[in-house]
Amino acid sequence: MKTTVTLSALLGLAGLTSAHYTFDKLLVNDVKQGGDNTYIRKHTRGYMPTKGTEILEEDFRCNTNAQPAPQVMTVKPGDKIGFQQAFGANGIEHPGPTQVYMTAAKNGAKNEDGSGDWFKVAQSLICKAGNAESLRNYAWCSWKENNVNFVMPESVPDGEYLVRAEHIALHGAHAGQAEFYYACAQIKVEGSKATAAPSPTTKIPGVYAVKDKAINFSLWGSSTSYPEIPGIPVMAGGEIRGSADGKSGDKRVAAPGASDSSTKAAAPATNNNAAAPSNNNNNNNNNNAAPSGNNDNNKPAGNKGFGGETKAAAASANGPSCKSRRSKRFES
Fold first, then answer.
1. Does 180 score more than 90 pLDDT?
2. Which of 14, 33, 75, 306 could form a disulfide with 79, with the two C-beta atoms 3.0–4.6 Å apart?
3. Rounded percentage of the chain residues whose pLDDT exceeds 70
4. pTM across the whole model
5. Cα torsion at 314, 318, 320, 326 (round to 10°)?
6. How many Å apart are CA 286 and CA 332, to the nearest integer?
């Protein structure tokens, strides 16, 4: 039995080694706005992930050598915002959660460097309850979706912001090799009635420690839930999609408010209110068994990504490809 589990884990890792991506297109209410990097800052990392101690570097804000985008997109509370994959990729096929952070741009989004305070506006977790095997793929809300999305809360005041969308791939997290895929958009919020600055806040880098339990979680044992949520709690009124164990289904609810960051995520059967994360923990006490052999340390060969050549393979050295599915609108 142990041999079978280990072999399954190794085969799973082998299939995930080339599924890399980034984000360069902005969606508003499921409609693409402008072209590539019109509103999302272009960076030089391509589709390769950030890993290990790289999460402590300043480039972890908006990715390597990210440059201001030419335009700022104006949205209103209630608009659905999406960060769509680049290079022809068409679906996330790594298991793991998504987060969206925002920081106020007092001198305009084009001039913001991200050194101020960030707050979490959204997160997605597990949308399908199942067995341990499902936690390695389709259980996650973001599985096979081609964008990280959220609904702009009523509780975000008017103003310009950097908005940072992130997906954390956990297939190598057991070996300290969680993969971070992220980018920043320049957005202006208009029509909000909120006046108070959102809280709690964090710094980026600083939102995660290298040894945090949430980013060292093993998918390769018997766990059917994800009890440690990355980063700070979602702001009051922000969006929580799914839950720690997926029993609530693919639902989106408004976060009730900040909670104690030392509390583990709840695994509710009838509601969606996952509790706050255990952040900056220095020990990984998850008892799931890790697979033997190599994890996802290798760069993809050529232009391979999500299982094949990309549509833009001839034009770009960075090109994954995959499937997508649209998500439901926010429900409160």
1. yes
2. 75
3. 72
4. 0.76
5. -110
6. 33
Q: For residue 152, give both structure tokens.
A: 């702009």
In whole angstroms, what is the distance from residue 289 CA to residue 169 CA? 18
Report the 3 state secondary structure along the chain.
CHHHHHHHHHHHHHHHCCCCCCEEEEEECCEEECCCCCCECECCCCCCCECHHHHHCHHHCCCCCCECCCCCEEECCCCEEEEEECCCCCCCCCCCCEEEEEEECCCCHHHCCCCCCEEEEEEECECCCCCCCHHHCCCECCCCCCEEEEECCCCCCCEEEEEEEEEEECCCHHHCCCEEEEEEEEEEECCCCCCCCCCCCECCCCCCCCCCHHHCCCCCCCCCCCCCCCCCCEEEEEEEECECCCCCCCCEEECCCCCCCCCCCCCCCCCCCCCCCCCCCCCCCCCCCCCCCCCCCCCCCCCEECCEECCCCCCCCCCCCCCCCCCCCCCC
pLDDT in tens, 110-127: 999 999 999 999 999 999
